[in-house]
Amino acid sequence: QIATVDYALYILENNVRVDGLQVYITDTTDQQYGILMSGGSGVVDYYVSNNIVRGVGTYATDFWTLGIHLDAGPGTARIWNNIVYDFYASGSLPDRHVGIGLAVGATQAQAYIYNNTVYNCYLGFEAYTSPAAFNNIAQDCNNGFNGTFAGTSDYNISDIAADAPNATFGGGEATVAFFDEENDDFHLAVLDTAARDQGFDLSSDVTLAFSTDIDGGTRPFGLAWDI
Q1: Within 13 A of 182's CA, how many CA atoms are on the CB side?
Q2: Does residue 69 contact residue 37 with C-beta atoms inside 8 Å?
Q3: 12-65 pLDDT, tens per residue?
Q4: What is the DSSP secondary structure assignment for residue 158, as one 8-state letter?
Q5: How would DSSP label each residue in 47-89?
Q6: What sign does the CA torsion over 96, 158, 180, 226 have?
């Protein structure tokens, strides 16, 4: 549990793997980042996977609060199997509160965002570097997917119409049934039909091939990959 600091994890190195952390940002008096990738000079190479990053729920200030944020490059960032929630706002600049963010800049790293769940963030996924996004969920956000995503992005879900970037999956508007949403258990419910068995198989992806979920379970769990 991290309190009264600006960054739970502030990365200034170029080649870093962040896997399996739980971060809880409780401070509401300053700018806060859960996992911030800023890099040094040169080409970056980041892997951020299987992490849970949580905010306080609703921030009443206009400070920036972001769960996972990339502000480095050039190079590559791979972000997958993460759960980010409760970075919302009631201040005058609510769009400063973001679940997973990719910063502005022509020299930013190329990002690959796969199989992440973002819940109750003012902006779920914010992108200005055209990341490739597959199998991501945004729920209970003011804007689930904000910015510019790669045209190949697909199989993403938002509960807001015409929000999720999809090349073939359609609008991706759906409400996902979680196991215990009230108590922040974001496993897919057994009866869910929006995300369960609806994803794209990334086990042979040329940039980021994986075949497990955040629990370490083998994908697919059922008939097909889950979103």
Answers
A1: 0
A2: yes
A3: 999 999 999 999 988 777 778 899 998 878 899 999 999 999 998 877 677 778
A4: E
A5: EEES-EEEEEEEE-S-S-EEEEEE---SEEEEEES-EEEEEEE
A6: negative
